[in-house]
Amino acid sequence: MNPSRVIPIVTTALFALLCSCSKSEETVLKEFKDVNTPMEEETYSDEGTGYYNFFRVQNASDHTVYFNISTKYGSEPDVIYIRPGQQGTTLVVLEKIGLTGLTDALITDLSLMGWITFWVNAPAPGRFPPLGGGRPGEQRWLAEDLDTMARYSFYDGLEYDSRTATPKDPARWTFEQFSDHRVRWTYRITNEDRDEAVRQTLERWAKKDDEESEQL
Questions:
Q1: Where residue 12 falls among pLDDT bands split at 50, 70, 90?
Q2: What is the pTM of this model?
Q3: Of 168, 39, 18, 191, whose CA–CA distance to 120 is shortest?
């Protein structure tokens, strides 16, 4: 084989490989489309009394998902809807207040979480059916007795190395700390989370049926 021909071929192959890797990394970074304001576009200060806790949920499943996140310090009103390939972010801003005992304003430990709820394949925003007997234009909202839902209480403790999909398993999150005042947690929803939501829903509905049967 002619050495003069080998070198250009190897060089070309190496260049193609490097290009392929850089494109792959770029694809990963742009894999999920933001549905609301991401951390990078939020206005905040890494100094002062505010502590900024970002919780990002990425939808890598084949199903639509609503999610709500709260800490042990209180519920967050935001319910965010993400389709496959999308991601949403909830920002929880806390301040250290000695009188109330709030000293862990920067959430670096999932044990400081309160509840996380996923609703799977519920109607899209604005497409919920009308309330039964309601006035024209009135629509129902997410309901645990009508929609496929998984709810996780962190008051029961974390679930390390869980065999089933759960946000209570720290290993399923990606944690980033950018400063003493800013962190981000990222959870990626997969079809496993949908399966767990179905399991919880069937279990919840069966329990409700049993309770109603006992009352008859």
A1: very low
A2: 0.81
A3: 191
